[in-house]
Amino acid sequence: MVKFLEKCRKYNIKQILSFIYFFTLGHLFRLLFYKREYCCGRHFKGYFGGISAPGWRWVCIDAFGRRNNPNVPWPCSPYIKVGNYKNIHFHPDDINLFQGIGNYFQTMDDGHIYIGKGTYIAMNVGIITANHSLNNLDEHDKAKNVVIGERCWIGMNSVILPGVVLGENTIVGAGSIVTKSFSQGHCVICGNPAHKIKEI
Questions:
Q1: Model pLDDT, residue 7
Q2: Segment 165-189, tens digit of pLDDT
Q3: Catalytic: which of 27, 43, 91, 132?
Q4: What is the pLDDT of residues 41-100, one digit of tens each?
């Protein structure tokens, strides 16, 4: 009981009421729009049985903006664009990947995007699986999978092109254009085109 009261002291009554509001409304929206498996990771746990968890706020905000990504079965910010959601693979603990601004996850045809657990993606990042054909801009080249390893960090305004494989613990500097794979991981890459500048 003492620990519970100590936790309560960290918040004012307005914050606690806000937590309850988002928790209650979030559960309703989850039932209506999202698959349960995506709403039970680390971002949905916290004080007071998860009432204070940020995930419920995301569910509410994202549910009101579903017109931008209407069929996606997980909370997804209205300020990003998700292509064929069935071809995007990630761990439910990393639902925060889809709460950014300006990100573009493009999965054309049979191209897939695989994102390893513990990876972070900054704002305005584009991950694409197919480019326009150089000979006919109305068509796309054959899609190629993009694989991002565990515990990677993709910096702001970066673009990852089709077929790229990034090994675990790869850091992509802001504004980089990643045109080739760095499958060994444990490195910092940056530039246009991206090149390795440091091993970590």
A1: 57
A2: 999 999 999 999 999 999 999 999 9
A3: 132
A4: 899 887 666 787 888 888 988 888 888 888 899 999 999 999 899 999 999 999 999 998
- Taking only the tens place, the pLDDT of each residue in 118-138 is 999 999 999 999 998 888 888
Residue 2: pLDDT above 70?
no
Is 132 part of the annotated catalytic residue set? yes
Name the residue type at position 112.
H
Global confidence as pTM: 0.87
Angle at 40 between CA 11 and CA 70, to 5 degrees: 100
